[in-house]
Design goal:
This protein folds into two domains: 13-49; 54-132, Alpha-Beta Plaits, CATH 3.30.70. It has a four-stranded antiparallel β-sheet. The mean pLDDT is 96. 10% of the residues are buried. The chain is built from four helices and four strands. The chain is α+β, with helices and mostly antiparallel strands and 136 residues long. It starts with 12 loop residues before the first helix and ends with a strand. The protein binds nickel (II) ion. Residues 65, 90, 92, 98 line the site of nickel (II) ion (NI).
């Protein structure tokens, strides 16, 4: 069972007003929820600094499927890293453009290597890695 702990925080009033403005913008209902959210964000960020840590994430990439060399390269890369990729969703955005979202789980260094390889394929329009956690 999780027990809640109360603690006092002393900060400059100016910083607190900025924080209250931020939590409103981000949609946090309370200061406690906002602080929890920020702590979690920092912890996840820290997880990604350990190259051997097991993490999860998504890699999204956009490309023109008429460029057959590009498509083949993307498929080759994904097969090289098949042990990391849990699933891939393919969306046909319009006549030319495709979006693919690869859900990945594995070691930080391997996921970063995969993301870098996909990003560097010549002709890719956009690619980005969202770094999250397996929840431990
Ligand atoms: Ni498509």
């Amino acid at each position: 069972m999780v027990s809640l702990v109360r603690f006092g925080v002393s900060i400059e009033d100016e910083l607190l007003s900025k924080f209250d403005k931020l939590l409103k913008q981000e949609g946090y209902p309370t200061r406690s929820e906002a602080i929890k959210g920020l702590i979690t964000q920092a912890l996840v960020k820290q997880e990604w600094t350990g190259k051997n840590n097991e993490v999860a994430g998504t890699i999204t990439f956009i490309y023109d499927h008429h460029k057959r060399d590009l498509v083949n390269k993307l498929i080759d890369i994904q097969h090289d890293f098949n042990q990391l990729i849990i699933s891939v969703q393919h969306i046909h955005l319009d006549h030319d453009n495709c979006m693919e979202i690869a859900v990945v789980r594995g070691r930080v260094k391997e996921i970063q290597e995969l993301a870098a390889k996909l990003k560097s394929v010549k002709g890719i329009k956009h690619s980005d890695l969202v770094m999250t956690t397996i929840g431990h």
